[in-house]
Amino acid sequence: MSGRPHGDSSHGNAIDCIVCGTCVADILVRPVPLTQPVGAGRLFHVEPIEVTTGGIVCNSGTAMQRLGLRVAASSLVGDDLWGSVVRSRLTAEGIDTAALEPHATLATSTTAVLIDPSGERSFAHHVGAPHAIDLTFIKRQAAHFGNSRMALVGYFGLLPSLEPVLADALATIKATGCRVTLETGSSGGTLAQLAPALPHVDIYVPSLDEAVHQTGLSDPKEIIDCYRRHGAGGIVGVKLGTQGTLLSPAVGEVFDIPCVAAPGPVVDTTGAGDSFLAGLLTGVLRGMPLREAGLLGAATAACCVTGLGATAGLRSFDDTLRLANAS
């Protein structure tokens, strides 16, 4: 079952999944003594400073590409150095960047990640161009969505120009014939903005913290029932961290997906949630049963945490599937 996806090949779409939303240039600096003031004018020595990429477009997009899908990136970047870095990194992974638009005035989203000797992280973040992703942007990119089998949109909670019109935006994507997955970030946004959009969402699996913030509920099964009451008709679930994931393929049906043990020492948990979702979508787009797709997601997350940053630990589809099958 290696190579490109087998499910839905009759649709003829050039892209399996277009990932739309937050994309970031990350600058990793370590070690930084975060427990004490750096001090004005002080020079301190660090390891080689690394530049990588982050955000759902880069994290989930790269994971799906390495798992054998045909992936496209849809976002806004600045007409600047960091925008060129993001574009070149995505291109190097084989991700289509035709829908990655430069913004005339806003800068690329960037984060300086300050890592102390224990691995604790602090973030200096500039939101940048993805702040301007809105309904006009979605409509302008309709042809790109129509060329894709699935759209992954995120992060809900970090796209302030899109969230007030989220239902219209997702309906616009669905009208092109493209299925929709929604991912959350930060606090996860509000149920008031989410609820009108849920009928247009085919897959929605927020983290427990984000789901609690949205619904005011703490029990994962009650959370899923809440989403169902508000119109969610597709696959719904809740990511439970080290406790695995609860998935519901249909009303009244719920099952657990356990965590998969990491195939090496845990180095960094950054991007684990994005990797889980990438593996889950890869399985769904390949036509795997949902339980198997969920295990592929868990295995993708397990690989992710063995590398520094969100993508260094990712593996091929065959290697990841073997890990999933061995769990």
Summarize the structure in words.
The protein is α/β, with parallel strands linked by helices and 327 residues long. The chain has one domain: 3-Layer(aba) Sandwich (UDP-N-acetylmuramoyl-L-alanine:D-glutamate ligase), CATH 3.40.1190. The protein contains eleven helices and 13 strands. The chain has helices spanning 55-66, 81-92, 135-140, 142-146, 166-175, 191-194, 208-215, 220-229, 272-285, 290-304, 317-326, and strands spanning 15-21, 24-29, 50-54, 71-78, 96-103, 110-115, 121-126, 148-156, 179-184, 203-204, 235-239, 245-250, 253-257. The strands form two sheets. The chain has a nine-stranded mixed β-sheet with strand order 5-4-1-8-9-10-11-12-13, with helices on both faces. The chain has a four-stranded mixed β-sheet with strand order 3-2-6-7. Helix 1 crosses helix 9, helix 9 runs antiparallel to helix 10 (290-304) and helix 10 (290-304) crosses helix 11 (317-326). The longest helix has 15 residues, at 290-304. The chain starts with 14 loop residues before the first strand and ends with a helix. Residues 6-10 have low confidence and may be disordered.
